[in-house]
Amino acid sequence: MKSIHTWLLLSLLVIGQASIAQRMPVIKYPALERLLTRPTDTVLVVNFWATWCAPCVAELPYFEQLSAAHATDKVKVILVNLDGIGQLVKKVQPFIARTGIKSPEMLLLDEPDYNSWIGKVSPDWSGALPFTLIIDPSRKQRKTFEKGLTLAELETELRPFIQ
Amino acid sequence: MRKPFFLSVIGLILLTLSGFVTPPQGYQVGDKAMLFKLKNVDGKMVALGDASATKGYIVVFTCNTCPVAQAYENRMMALNHQYAAKGYPVIAINANDGTLSPGDSFDEMKKRSASKGYAFPYLLDETQEVAKTYGARSTPTVYVVKRTGSDFIVSYIGAIDNNRDNPSEAGEKYVQKAVDALLAGKPVETPTVKAIGCGIRWKQA
């Protein structure tokens, strides 16, 4: 490969890295499905939320605290936002900036045809928010919660997955 | 022979008490709907089947406070306007606990119904038994029930349409299609549609 191409690629990567700090990745369902099903050495705690869902907003700090408490464990907390891509810049990003949520991975799922993917995330899920899943590293064991969770509940439910 | 059975019963009781048994799924299309009797915002009791001339009902589990329910409020009112005269009036039910969600208290329900001019009952599911029996988990969720003899058969469950924010861009108007099909004596093509909504605010134990 010509060195100019290498430099172009590297510059793009650097620019990309800089903008990630301000942006929330927008994904489609297939990418979410890969995230939820591809085995790694890490337990996943995946929370579905929206800025318009009051109980969701109330529990976001618990996910952040959980993520911080397990920073050295093989645990990944992922917050999947469902405000819709039309709200990313005017609502979601300002919300994140205001509340200062940092540690969990944050994604916006751009899939307005809800019926096409809700059942694939979990047959236990009606589509009600908030909704949380804990998935083991092999991606074979999972537990779902179609309700708000306290930090204590999150810790209790996570424990068997990290032992 | 008795011991394993006894142990399974104990096990089931323990599981239920511990909350690990998944909650009941509620109705599926084809089930007979519970003939509830709930208090309306005017203080009177309203029962499914009260209006003897109806062919069925568009039962909507909704509330005051959920932004998704709010986004669909006009559409819910429009459904009543369109279908009440054809035999399928709307009945709205709020099952949110008024202590957890003060904006959904009975007083607030009265105010909402009055200010928006609801032309249909807005009932309080005080014990949340109706919502649990139907299997409603979020707002708004619609159950279209069709009168069949003395029963009401669940014929559609789910979302009103497929575009929360832009009604005019909703290519799939699920409830309208379902009721039109029932009125024409045809099968409902899309009988269940899941959607994102606010979880019903269940009473805490």
UniProtKB/TrEMBL annotation, chain A:
Keywords, alphabetical: Cytochrome c-type biogenesis, Redox-active center
Single GO term (MF): oxidoreductase activity
Biological process per Gene Ontology, one example term: cytochrome complex assembly
Domain Thioredoxin: 13-163
One Gene Ontology term, aspect cellular component: cell envelope
InterPro entries, per the entry: Redoxin, Thioredoxin-like_sf, Thioredoxin_CS, Thioredoxin_domain, Thioredoxin_ResA/DsbE_sf
Compartments in which it is found: Cell envelope
Keyword Repressor found: no
Pfam families in alphabetical order: Redoxin
The keyword Ribonucleoprotein belongs to this UniProt entry's keyword annotation: no
Record-given protein name: TlpA family protein disulfide reductase
Organism: Larkinella punicea
Taxonomic lineage of the native organism: Bacteria, Pseudomonadati, Bacteroidota, Cytophagia, Cytophagales
TrEMBL record, chain B:
PANTHER family: OS07G0260300 PROTEIN, THIOREDOXIN-DEPENDENT PEROXIREDOXIN
PROSITE patterns according to UniProt: THIOREDOXIN_2 (PS51352)
UniProt name for this protein: Thioredoxin family protein
Keywords linked to the UniProt accession: Signal
Domain of life: Bacteria
Any one GO MF annotation of this record: antioxidant activity
All copies of domain Thioredoxin, residue ranges: 27-184
Organism listed in the record: Larkinella punicea
Stored InterPro entries: AhpC/TSA, PRX-like1, Thioredoxin-like_sf, Thioredoxin_domain
Signal peptide: 1-26
Keyword presence, Signal: yes
One protein family per Pfam: AhpC-TSA
